Description:
The structure is a single chain. The chain has helices at residues 10-17, 62-77, 121-139, 172-191, 229-241, 260-270, 280-298, 305-327, 329-347, and strands at residues 25-30, 40-45, 48-54, 96-98, 101-107, 149-150, 197-199, 208-211, 214-218, 225-227. By secondary structure, it is an alpha+beta fold. The strands form three sheets. Strands 1-2-3-5-4 form a five-stranded antiparallel beta sheet, covered by helices on one side. A three-stranded mixed beta sheet has the order 6-10-7. Helix 5 packs across helix 7 (280-298) and helix 6 packs across helix 9.
Amino acid sequence: MPPSRLQLTQREIDSTLARYSIGKVHSIHELAAGSVMSPKVVIESDRGKLLLKRRANGLDIPALVAFSHEVILGCLEQGICIPPLLATSDNQNSMVQLGDQVYELFVFIDGSAYDRAPTAIRSHAAQAGALLSELHLAFDQITTTFEPARETSALNLSRVELLSDPTLHIEQSTIDHLRRMISFGDELLRANADPNKLVHGDWHPGNMIFRQEEIVAICDFDNTRFGSRAREIAQAMIHCSIKLPQPGQPAIECAPEPDLPALGAFWSGLNREHSRAYSSRMIAGLMPAVMVDAALAMLSPVGHESDLEQAKSMLIAVNRKTRWLDEHQGELIQMLDSAKLANRSKVDPV
């Protein structure tokens, strides 16, 4: 079963808020969003609406937290829409450390979620692509004093061996396909090697706040690091165009194809201002590999039978989706090229 969502205790909340000047607290309620390992509460106070968050284990090393805070402040200075951090009242620190835990307090920004309805998804996807482009350009202007985390490899080939776990009972044809997809992606990245640069690290719809058609904020810089921007773009395109199961529908029965209008809209938005011209062929080729890599990263150690069934169902769904992407790669490349050309014609009419 998936891990249970962690919660903040009242003692944690009181001890942390005591470090800030926020006036009277009127209400506190849990925010069941984002990583289950990073509990959050929304606070109504004299200072306004705030979000208190405890960093997940592994992402709570003070130097890495300080690095991400430097990035957030740098982005805010350049006009990127990010919920501002509050500083403590005693020493103007951007985090609170209690024992071995780290806490952050942000201004809470109201809005709505990424809308996958046919009437809204194209606009939201285009906004997501354009903001990622803007963010990458802003990242190139930021200097930090703290050392960031760094990717050793954009794709982790060593995790492929997890597919051979006999308890999963995965068909050999599925194992061979998934192995081929991630190997091809690794070769593609090596053949088109770019220096690692600053990346958001978790660009998906759950970290975006919308008001109608506009993104008003992007959240969660916990995974910001130096890494592959090509991988970040490919993964973002998957997240913003993937078709999710309907309520009660098993993942293995979900439509394998992405939402193509959303995919094209994201790519068009990304290329609106992006200083680095990413190849349609490279990004389309990376998408299956990135999907496989992300699925393998989610595989938990052998546990209950329900865990195994869930892992197997996820891998079968990923197999179906990556097969579709692989078999239709030529069409995808043509569609992305057309979207890029159409976008250029709007910017530079003949």
